[in-house]
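Methods — Computational structure assignment.
A single polypeptide chain was analysed. Its primary sequence is given first, followed by the predicted tertiary structure written as structure tokens.
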Amino acid sequence: MHYNSLKSIATKGIIWSAIDKFAIQFGQFIVGIVLARILVPEDFGLIGMLAIFIALSQTFVESGLGMGLIQRQDRSALDFSTLFVCNLVVSGFFYFLLFFSAPFIATFFKQPQLTDLTRILGLNLILNALAIVQRTKLTIAIDFEVIAKSKGNEVIDGISAMAKHYGVSNNHIVYDADGVGAFVEGFIPGAIPFHGGGAVIETRDHVSGKLIKENYHNLRTQCYYRSGLRCDRGDMKINAMVQNKMYDNKMTVRQRLLYERKAIKKDAKTPDGKLKIISKDEMKAKLNGDSPDLFDMLMMRELAELKPKRQYIG
């Protein structure tokens, strides 16, 4: 099967991120050398004077929205549209700020040429904003990999490396405490254990506003039902590039999901009338001994929707 260990994937992601940043810096260095050869020192110095203004404006334009969307799981077309519009509006605001401030910048440096130069170089803000959605979608697609059940130390190292790289705090990491993921306990402080047989988590009733316990047999059933409803509403989508990645040497991710879906079945209600799904062993029997790992992953992420939002005051 075509698998990669979690550690190697995390390492690869960090390496490619470093290469990306190095390539940008190296490209800018080369451009700087070329400009220094073409332009006289006075003209080259004019561009250097504006670098701080352009860089500061670009920081506000990026503002972390793209990275936030990359980390979010239930992305929708509206989210991407919001990202595009927000970045375009902010970039437009800072461009006009630079546009009208250009004469003052020129006066401050006593260089009249800076007026036109500021207005021309400032257009980069808008051009970068136009590409933010495409860059974000590409990052989301590339960041996904199919991960094997590796050695314990590789999994721990890989999770820690990826969490650090993407700025994910440990209390946003969920692991299957009833399965092979149980060894994670204690090695990633603050990570949330998922106990499928545990009690149903209370939710707030939309009508009365009161906390209620939904009519499910256990937490696993609750998360499977809720994630299924989320998919039916179209609130959970998988990027086409991810769907077409190979899960193993036989199936793509999309084909694997369709294959696993046949194992997720309702069971008879409990004697007290609670909804229930079939056991994990019954699911494995329907998959020739395999575990529905992809569906379990989608099911367990529902815990993030059920857990109350935490507020930290520091």
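Note: The radius of gyration is 25 Å.
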